[in-house]
Amino acid sequence: MTLRFPETFLFGTATASLQIEGGDSNNTWYEWSQAGHIKDGTHSIRACDHWQRIDADFRLHEELNSHTYRMGLEWSRIEPQEGVFSEEALNVYRREIEGLVQRRIVPLVTLYHFSLPLWFARMGGWNHPQSALYFWRFVQRVVGHLGDLVQDWITLNEPNIYLTMGYLRGEWPPGLKNATAPMFDAARRLVEAHVLAYRAIHLQRPDARVGVAHHLRIFDPTGGPLSALSAYLHERIFQDMFLQAMTRGRFIAPLGRGYPLGKEKFADFIGVNYYTRDMVRGKWGGGPLHGVLLVKKGAPVNDLGWEIYPRGLSRIITRLWKRYRLPIWITENGICDARDEVRPAYIASHLREVHRCIQAGIPVERYYHWTLLDNFEWIEGESARFGLYHNDFETQTRTLRESGRFFAQIARTRSLEVPS
Ligand code: IFM
């Protein structure tokens, strides 16, 4: 059976600046790597050396027949010191985006994806009372420079993951553990940063499409009322709290109440980063979320032990559509699979769910595979391989995987063969 996607549907890949560029020592992940936190001993300073290979890397999108590319900008390069902007860095990004546009690849640009300039982190990062204003100033500058080329923007990537890893688990910068109050404080500032950025982008480019890339997963209870409550709290605090505030300005507990930033629409699409499901076993204590997260017994998993659960994608899309009635872009979906054994089936099964939603009349408009090439996967370092291209980090040789060929075929034909 052939599943056909609409002619307007866009396929592409997603990356983040810190994870591919290399060569920047002015950000929090450089320091985090220096401090020895990367499990395999690798370092963000190398990554894919993309900063030096921008021209050569256009080939990667061309071979994949991509219609679009989600790329990130590194704040620490553009504003290396507080209030000092680098025209040079902005021009490098400008040339890269021009290269995409010339190749008819629609750019989708992420403004903040986990790494922060050191000057900003030293001031307290997202806990600084003016942090949203600093971000707003940066965004204005960027949109002033690139806004004629870029219509589509992601203000923030996965604020919930940033806060969980950096404020509850202490595994990412700023390295805090169980810091619940500072975490909610930073969450409020991130909402404010998004809202200010949303307005600033629209002011400069009224036809812009602006959203957040939300990390959304399924939380299913293992059984019993406590686990149901715990799953509900996870869903609420880990995702709905951000969705409500960043989509329609509504603050729900424990973030706040009402519409402190205005009762307006703050998203033109909902970005969905979907990877997996967690089973939640109830347990009192252990922070505001309670519960223990488990992998379903016997379920297929990726190299990092995350359950492969395609149905979760359509469950999430359907829920979002019912609640928000906004176009949905799958801003990330992918698998850590060094041997590339499961990736083709992973792509097919998740796209099948996307197709099912489109058939049901839900406007899912884009799919970005995470990721273009193996890169620096945060504390997992270079060992966790998510790419459609294998990357040899020593020689920086990119080799198309079988799954990459499969993806290229899907993008070229906007269709997918599946067993009926
Ligand atoms: O690599 C990350 C990305 O930066 C954010 N979303 C999840 C990906 C895989 O872990």
Describe this structure in words.
Helix content is 39%, strand content 18%. With 420 residues, the chain is of the alpha/beta class. Strands 2-3-4-5-6-7-9-10 form an 8-stranded parallel beta barrel, surrounded by 6 helices. A two-stranded antiparallel ribbon has the order 1-13. A two-stranded antiparallel sheet has the order 11-12. Strand 9, helix 12 and strand 10 form a beta-alpha-beta unit. The protein is globular, with a radius of gyration of 20 Å. The N and C termini lie close together (5 Å). 5-hydroxymethyl-3,4-dihydroxypiperidine binds next to loops.
- What is the N-to-C succession of helices and strands? EEHHHEHHEHHEHHEHEEHEHEEEHE
CATH architecture: Alpha-Beta Barrel
Please describe the biggest sheet, giving its number of strands, its sense, and whether it closes into a barrel.
Answer: 8 strands, parallel, barrel
Which whole number gives the mean pLDDT?
Answer: 97
Total of helices: 13
Condensed summary:
By secondary structure, the chain is α/β, with parallel strands linked by helices. It has helices at 17-20, 28-34, 54-63, 75-78, 87-102, 118-122, 131-146, 159-168, 180-204, 225-248, 311-324, 343-359, 402-413, and strands at residues 2-4, 10-14, 68-72, 106-112, 152-157, 209-221, 270-281, 292-294, 328-333, 364-369, 389-392, 397-400, 415-417. The chain has 13 helices and 13 strands.
